[in-house]
Design goal:
Layout (H helix, E strand, L loop, with lengths): L1 E4 L4 E3 L6 H7 L18 E6 L2 E3 L7 H5 L2 E3 L3 E3 L3 E5 L18 H8 L9 E6 L11 H11 L6 E2 L1 H13 L3 E7 L3 E7 L6 E7 L3 E8 L4 E9 L9 H8 L4 H23 L7 E8 L1 H7 L22 E2 H4 L8 E4 L9 H10 L8 E6 L3 E6 L4 E5 L21 E7 L6 E5 L7 E2 L1 H14 L17 E4 L2 E7 L5 E4 H24 L9 E5 L8 H6 L11 E5 L1 H11 L1 H13 L1 E3 L5 H10 L11 H7 L1
Parallel strand pairs: 1-7, 9-11, 12-15, 15-17, 18-27, 20-29, 21-23, 27-28
Antiparallel strand pairs: 1-2, 3-5, 3-7, 4-6, 8-10, 10-11, 12-13, 13-14, 16-17, 18-19, 19-20, 21-22, 24-25, 25-26
Helix pairs in contact: 6-7, 10-14, 10-15, 12-16, 14-15
The structure holds FE2/S2 (inorganic) cluster (FES).
């Protein structure tokens, strides 16, 4: 049996195989937020001809059903079938994400007052050539020379030794011996070879970013980024963990993300004419699940009570083991994790923000696919994960999507007519709404009176924009060939996510005996942190009502922390220290968290005195 796509491509499909699975096998990827469980309603395709069986889904409206629209993960062809993939269901994971080069990186590194000290160290060694009289083995010759220099206890792996003999001869016995602390010899290069490079990698649940760095001066040579192709197996860490524990899933997820990193690497290394053997070390930062998947470790126990990761502090493993396409012997430093849901990305963030060095008490929040927070100063640090879920990236929202072309990113609603005006990424016809658009539209609906503080539509208002849809009441944000709506269920989901973030912050601050007034600085990190409108986020009660001047936007601090650790031994030690020092609070089992969460399930909050600026606006 075959699936014939409207593009003309033909894809084989087995009996009882879903369309989603067959497409995936052939490298055609759809948005599959729930990982193929039939619950997200995102993997929509239109059947143009052929026999099939499909499970009834509340996620497809009657009108769409009549047009032949089905969920690809719940539809099984019974003979050859013709299929059109709907635009909003296309997943272009290979797309490069535009990312500005950070000119401030070197400046930031200098502000720490550290010398550049890469992971790989070197000795210059000139070995006497072997002769008939001096005929000890190559390894003994090297050891003898090291002993003369007073270096004892060097370890030599089989991988090092297997290439050493040829390398010594190739470089005329005048070499740099590259080694890591231990000490352990890792490779031999020519004495003349002075170019040294390293890579910093951020493995986010949604995106992967790679920095190529010149280790001689810390200069950023180039940046590459892409969506994390693991998105094919689900949007959030939980669906990825579930996939990893199913037959072959772990290897699949590992290969997928390694391929993403290698694709970026190959492009930027080739562009700059760099020999990949000269890329001699790597630093990887990611949440606990991403770090486990990258190293091929089963993350299954992370989601089972009592939520225990296999590793928090990772040994210095090699690039060959990680399957990275750089020097196989290059050491790979992984930012340490704190707990199952607070990983190396947050340790990186705290390091980059310097909150662990300052006397002022700061709140650090990384609002990405999940939501992690840390509070503290140079004396103490506490941290928690809020389980906000990926709804701000489109998951669980009828017309939700990531912040890519076609996403409504900003909305204004005229207070007298309730008519919305929207701005769309790429100035094109909208196909959905992204996180910042969702925050905008909810805050505007609240202020203009389209919804009440419970997030329910005010049925009495006079506007044609409010209507009964397949999933209950909905507000039409954009009218067109495809209407873009926000449903009451969507608002509920967004309120749950924002309530989880706010409750996490409120509880963490309370647990250390502080109030919001004690917070002198708020650092906002994460992809979402780049374009988060603080005023709007305060109106919906996602961020606390703290004076705007206290907020600092740091962008992707996971990659910044990885960059800092690539350049400095001291900063790697600081990262280890931060991870050890952080006290982790498990919110999911806390009764107080549930209380805070329930109070925050309101716009902006049940206690309006906590949001004085919003109270004024609502009056
Ligand atoms: S409904 Fe098909 S992947 Fe979620």
């Amino acid at each position: 049996m075959n699936i014939k796509l409207s593009t003309g491509k033909s894809i084989p499909i087995a009996k009882d195989e879903s369309i989603l699975s067959a497409l995936k096998r052939s490298g055609v990827y759809l948005v599959a937020s729930c990982g193929g469980k039939g619950t997200c309603g995102k993997c929509r395709v239109k059947i143009q001809g052929g026999k099939y069986r499909t499970s009834a889904s509340g996620k497809i409206s009657q009108v769409d059903k009549e047009k032949g629209i089905v969920l690809a993960c719940q539809t099984f062809p019974e003979n050859d079938i013709s299929v059109e993939i709907l635009e909003e269901a296309r997943l272009v994971v290979g797309d490069k994400i535009a990312l500005a080069k950070s000119k401030d990186l070197a400046e930031l590194f200098r502000s720490f007052g550290k010398e550049i000290a890469p992971i790989v160290k070197r000795f210059n060694i000139k070995l006497p050539r072997p002769t008939i009289e001096d005929h000890i083995s190559d390894l003994e010759r090297l050891k003898r020379e090291l002993e003369i220099k007073g270096i004892k206890g060097m370890r030599f792996s089989q991988a090092f030794i297997s290439s050493m003999a040829d390398d010594l001869r190739k470089h005329n016995w005048e070499i740099h011996l590259a080694y890591v602390d231990g000490p352990e010899a890792i490779f031999v290069t020519s004495e003349k070879q002075t170019s040294r490079y390293g890579i910093a990698v951020d493995i986010g649940t949604t995106t992967v970013v790679v920095y190529l760095i010149d280790l001689s001066d810390g200069k950023l040579i180039d940046v590459g980024s892409t969506y994390n192709s693991q998105i094919r197996y689900g949007d959030d860490v939980i669906t990825r963990i579930v996939h990893a524990t199913e037959g072959g899933g772990l290897e699949e997820l590992r290969d997928t993300v390694t391929e993403d990193i290698n694709n970026i690497l190959e492009t930027i290394i080739e562009k700059h004419g760099i020999n990949k053997e000269h890329v001699e070390c790597a630093v990887v930062s990611g949440n606990t699940t991403m770090s486990h998947l990258f190293w091929g470790l089963n993350p299954g126990h992370i989601r089972e009570e009592p939520y225990i990761p296999t590793v928090n502090s990772f040994p210095l493993w090699k690039a060959g083991t990680a399957r990275l396409h750089i020097n196989k012997q290059a050491p790979v430093y992984t930012l340490p994790c704190v707990a199952s849901y607070v990983g190396g990305d947050i340790v990186s963030g705290v390091l980059a923000s310097k909150m662990h060095k300052n006397t002022e008490t700061a709140l650090f929040m990384d609002i990405g696919t999940n939501g992690e927070i840390a509070v503290g100063n140079n004396e103490w640090l506490v941290t928690a994960a809020c389980s906000a879920g990926p709804c701000f990236e489109g998951s669980g929202i009828k017309h939700g999507m990531r912040a890519t072309e076609g996403a409504i990113e900003a909305v204004k609603i005229a207070p007298d007519t309730f008519e919305p005006s929207v701005s769309v990424i790429g100035n094109t016809v909208p196909i959905g709404i992204c996180g910042s658009g969702m925050i905008d539209v909810i805050s505007e609906m609240l202020i203009s009176g389209v919804i009440d503080q419970k997030g329910k539509f005010v049925r009495e208002i006079k506007t044609g924009r409010l209507r009964q849809g397949d999933e209950g009441m909905e507000f039409v944000i954009h009218k067109g060939a495809k209407d873009i709506v926000l449903t009451e269920v969507d608002i509920e989901n967004i309120m749950r996510a924002k309530a989880a973030i706010y409750a996490g912050i409120a509880l963490l601050i309370k647990e250390v005996g502080f109030t919001l007034d004690n917070i002198e600085r708020v650092y906002v990190a994460g992809g979402f942190g780049n374009y988060l409108n603080v005023d709007r986020a305060i109106i919906i009660g996602m961020l606390p009502d703290i004076p705007k001047e206290k907020f600092r936007f740091l962008g992707n601090t996971s990659i910044t922390g990885a960059y800092l650790c690539l350049l400095s031994e001291d900063l790697r030690q600081e990262a280890e220290e931060i991870a050890r020092k952080m006290t982790y609070m498990e919110l999911s089992v806390s009764r107080n968290f549930m209380d805070e969460y329930m109070s925050a399930l309101f716009l902006p909050h049940t206690d309006l005195s906590l949001f004085p600026t919003v109270a004024k606006l609502l009056k």
